[in-house]
């Protein structure tokens, strides 16, 4: 069955990052509530700044310092607001797709010495199980012609390109490095090929 989405409702959301229109999507792939936060007119536009942000309850909501997710979310919304046009797609795929329970269990394994990749694998998962089909469908629904992707992750660029999205440029989104996220970011750079400026990274 071919995947499909439906833009069920749009509503104005004023935020500390500026005013956006929130689009709520239903879809045929899962029962999750994926949304798009849209700034300005994007239909028919080229080189639209786009952030595809996977849900991170601990980082986005609780402000956890174990990851860079919450800071990336804030930075992306600021960037899009400053540009006056753009899209932040919020995908409900917590913990790189393994869910909140498994992510918290992985945290405990990390506290015992495993990195984020090995912790996921020990729990019976892949290092990254996220998928971007719905993100591509949302961008097509919004009639975005091409994008500048706000990411450090080359896999996102590759996956979106395979799904028919024209990615014309990458916008880096590097956050502060501190003691609580250092090992997490090193693992991203060294084992997942994320494009990060790490101290003493290979």
Short description:
With 202 residues, the chain is of the alpha/beta class. Helix content is 33%, strand content 24%.
What can you see in these coordinates?
The chain has 202 residues and is of the alpha/beta class. It has a domain at 5-93 and 132-173: GTP cyclohydrolase II (Rossmann fold), CATH 3.40.50. Helix content is 33%, strand content 24%. It has seven helices and seven strands; from the N terminus they run ββββααβαααβαβα. The chain has helices at residues 57-61, 69-83, 100-111, 116-122, 133-141, 154-162, 182-191, and strands spanning 5-15, 18-27, 34-39, 48-54, 86-91, 147-150, 167-171. The chain has a seven-stranded mixed sheet, sandwiched between helices. α6 links the parallel β6 (147-150) and β7 (167-171). The longest helix has 15 residues, at 69-83.
Provide key terms for this protein.
single chain, 202 residues, alpha/beta, Rossmann fold, seven-stranded mixed β-sheet, 7 helices, 33% helix, globular, metal-binding, GTP-binding, nucleotide-binding, hydrolase
